[in-house]
Amino acid sequence: INAHLAQTEKLASIGQLAAGFAHEINNPLGVISCYADLIDKQVKGNAQLKEDVGVITKHASLCTHVVESLLNFARVNKPEFLMHDLHGILDDILSILRHRMEKVGVTAQTRYLATGVELPLDPEKIRQLFMNLVINAIQAMDKGGELTVSTRLVDASHLEVTVADTGVGISPSDRTRIFEPFFTTKAKGVGTGLGLSVSYGIVRQHGGTIDVESTPGEGTCFMVTLPLRAKETKNKPPTDRG
Ligand code: ADP
């Protein structure tokens, strides 16, 4: 498991590397576009040259698009922690997605055992995290199935949320790659391959862990563990402020 986590971490950091790279590419790319525009304005009489410059402009803007999506993906804005309950967030997600689940014959149930618990979290990020997991679960059950969202206290200082589905499952070889940025098995336009890598980052920002168990053909269960109290370490959630 440790080796797996180390690899996961390495893969998630590829996204940040890519973002640094994107920054470096952005400036020269801007210069290329700018000069192509300048040439374009001077070649009015020469149709062939105008067309050639058009190709440069078009491909430079394709690059710009790729760079922008990389930057978007890696935008790691700082989380803002407050003491907050989880069940409200989870219920919201399920109700937002209810219609979508009905359409594909997915039924949802909740098993909330950790009731009345507040923990230090960034509600928006946690919403995004579980939204990603639940949408993945629904997409894994396009012929219907059952979604179960559960919470329980693991010990005195950790709460576990599980998102379980009865969908297609994940093959052992895919399982080593699912947290990798841009890894997707979904059709273009359906999947970006960023959901789990972003989710992994959010869990880490909260000082938690994320893991997965899956049986192909039977289903998948994502387990997220979050600390109940903030640790007083750098990059960890701050202690509650009064
Ligand atoms: P995306 O959903 O855009 O493909 P993710 O990072 O969220 O990107 O997921 C990566 C891949 O992990 C998916 O393409 C899919 O193969 C697999 N996956 C994630 N969640 C599940 C699930 N609940 N059941 C089956 N496969 C899953």
UniProtKB/TrEMBL annotation:
* Record's subcellular location: Membrane
Taxonomically, which superkingdom? Answer: Bacteria
* Name of this chain's protein: histidine kinase
Where in the full protein does the shown chain start and end, and how long is the full protein?
A: 416 to 657 of 657
Looking at the record, the residues that make up the Histidine kinase domain are 20-230
What is the source species? Answer: Desulfoluna butyratoxydans
